[in-house]
Amino acid sequence: MPPSIPRLNTLLVTFTGEDRPAVSSRLLRVAADAGAFVLDLEQAVVRGRLLLTALLQPTDDGATLATAIEQVGKGFGLTVTVEPGRGDNPARRTGRASVVVLGASLHASSLAAITSAIGDQSANIDRIRRLSRDPVTTLELDLSGADVPQLRRALALLAAEHGVDIAVSPGGLARRGRRLLVMDVDSTLIQDEVIELLAAHAGRAAEVATVTERAMRGELDFEQSLHERVRCLAGLDVSVFDDVRRAIRLTPGARTLVRTVRQLGFSVAVVSGGFIEIVQPLATELGIDRAHANRLEVRDGKLTGRVDGPVVDRAEKARALRRFAEAEGLPLSRTVAVGDGANDLDMLATAGLGIAFNAKPVVREQADASVNVPYLDTVLFMLGISREDVEEADRLTAPDSSNVDPGASLESPHV
């Protein structure tokens, strides 16, 4: 502070011990009786153990208030420390970032390596909170002094080494407010590959599955592989679309993910190298705002084995994300993309946060973050949305059991 302005006398108060009702209210009542001001106040309870800290500004030297605070702690059977000092908390450094660490279980050695790497990047961990416990444990670390791209590179290596999922995102206002979520469909929003379901009706499922796998690994040009697979569908009656729509299996947590982000004011879109005849009804059912996919050519009620119009390939997926963001009036920094295959790479790179979902190795290596558990709504944790937030949104949108989604992770339960 400038020399002309005297630094404040302050008391740093810490209570630890078994959590009991009314500890914070009693502390504040004693501070109020002494005419003190509250500069900071934080409380956490872990397995019934309380940690309460307060930074108070007394109106005098604080000795009388310190004695009263110690009596409050003793009355509750808590350990109390009161540290006199001068001044407020130092201002937080710039370079705010959020690091989300997710795993079926989080070993201390993994977290030790991650926190050490953060320190090696000259970033500081200011706060840590738990976002979820079952079936995955998720922690969010609030940082300052971080270089997000540099930290992403450093932590990506540790994620692979320790078998955990890590997402590094800009912090502060970037974590709040409306965003656009854009998802791939096949093997992301749904568990199936639609073209394989269609091919099964043509008796050529194995042939198409082989081509699909090679394309998703990036071994084949997507457009060429699509045309090759679509030729196998020639002659199918359009009634096959109804059969395939009934056979589709949503990825566990898909409904919960869409429902929750929409409750939070997000816009949601899907962009697929599959087919709009399947994707659009699915999007409508889930309440997804926008859908973009290939269209199959039909003549006299039969599939011709050709695609009607330009192919939705990896470049077009990225262009679609840009169009969606522009239509929603959102910058690309406020977009999130989720996909699993090589044809999603451009879209993941274009988005503010690109998340590889149970993806091929080439995709995991290039995405900003990776999720390797089979529950799509774990994406919510990567966005800093806690389990409690999800449950609250779910109660608001599904107030009775008739709306329960058997495939959604909260209701199964999977989150």
UniProtKB/TrEMBL annotation:
UniProt-recorded Gene Ontology molecular function terms: hydrolase activity
Keyword Amino-acid biosynthesis assigned: yes
Leading EC class: hydrolase
Gene3D superfamilies linked to this entry: 3.30.70.260, HAD superfamily/HAD-like
The entry's keywords: Amino-acid biosynthesis, Hydrolase, Magnesium, Metal-binding, Serine biosynthesis
Region (Disordered): 393-415
Pathway the protein contributes to: Amino-acid biosynthesis; L-serine biosynthesis; L-serine from 3-phospho-D-glycerate: step 3/3
Cofactors that this protein relies on: Mg(2+)
Pfam families attached to this UniProt entry: ACT_6 (PF13740), ACT_PSP_2 (PF21086), HAD (PF12710)
Chain ranges of the Phosphoserine phosphatase ACT domain: 98-168
Reaction(s) catalysed by this chain's protein: O-phospho-D-serine + H2O = D-serine + phosphate; O-phospho-L-serine + H2O = L-serine + phosphate
InterPro entries noted in UniProt: ACT-like_dom_sf, HAD-like_SerB, HAD-like_sf, HAD_sf, PSP, PSP_ACT
Listed EC numbers: 3.1.3.3
UniProt KW Metal-binding keyword: yes
Similarity comment: family membership: Belongs to the HAD-like hydrolase superfamily. SerB family.
Protein's recorded name: phosphoserine phosphatase
Organism, as annotated: Flexivirga alba
The organism's taxonomic lineage, starting at the top: Bacteria, Bacillati, Actinomycetota, Actinomycetes, Micrococcales
